[in-house]
User: What shape does this take?
Amino acid sequence: MKRTIKPLIYSFICTLILAVFPQEAKAEPGVSAKAAVLMEQSSGRVLYGRNEHRPMRIASITKIMTAILAIESGKMQHTITITDHAAKTEGSSLYLKPGEKIPLQDLVYGLMLRSGNDSAVAIAEYVGGSLDGFAYLMNQKAEEIGMKHTRFRNPHGLDTHEDHYSTAYDMALLTRYAMTNEMFKDISSTKVYRSEQTGEKWDRVWRNKNKMLKLYDHSTGGKTGYTKRAKRTLVSTAEKDDMELIAVTLNDPDDWEDHRNLFEWGFHSFDMVPLIDKGEISSIKDKGYKGKVESNRTFSYPLMKEEISQISSSIHLYKLPKSGKWEDGKVPKPVGRYFIELDGSRIADLPLYYDGKALIKPDEEGLWTSFKNMLNRLFFVAKEHDRLW
Assistant: This one.
């Protein structure tokens, strides 16, 4: 009897300890990649990085940029005639034929699902006017997004130029941008696509090369890549419990497993914590502002449990008029800012609005009002400083 009860007692004590003292976050995942990054979609926070700012060859994940430029061109329903030059492009192919006509939308599906280099050239020729013209658009967009260590020279990622490169971080930025586009999200997550073939009785059927869509239950898309010089590259996205993650690995011999491990670690170690809710800011006690200041959005941020106590906030509002309240038509828009910091580093700067004025768009203010508000911002007075946790 003693031999039976003793193990049960030990088991009960261990269970009680684990309940009172929750397990710590998993150790950071080890990856085989030369460079890697794990980024949270809504905030852009880097949860894990390894040589994430090192410029490297990127192979076919280049095509994420090609796809988003094609989508944003507004020509997805246009029909393209395939040129000899496009049809003869080397490497992975959709086996397009010179002279055949195909919708730009189908080319983008073939680009993302089957990594067709012939499709990439056809898209570039049509959207950019030429390969050089399209490369210009690619680099212009990269600068707009903030990809500071990237240079595009072609639409497919083949090793045709020595100065075609990016970083794991920059490719995560690009993917974060692309994933705000609903059409891109749909294409990226598509497992099978059928495209009518000119002059043939059968359709082309393209199955997505991104095995993460099969291997990982929470996968939402991505793009594969490989050349002899770049080796294996992979971008993938996943969503679980209202958290969306982006993983990028460059030169990674075990990318499927690494991406799964990165996602599992990220989802286990971080939670999306709401730091401000849309609506009234209840912590404001000033008589002229109490009950009248609101945020026009909810802001959440990925945090480890131990980081919650490191969050602080401050509210800065314009000085009220001498009368103690704003008159109609004279309320600044926004009326103040809500700053949030994590361990002393600012992670959010959110506008605050007065008495329902959040519905007024900034571009409706007019140039002079906007200018006055910019000047007035120099005279902000801190109204509240509080810790959220």
About this structure: The longest strand covers residues 231-240.
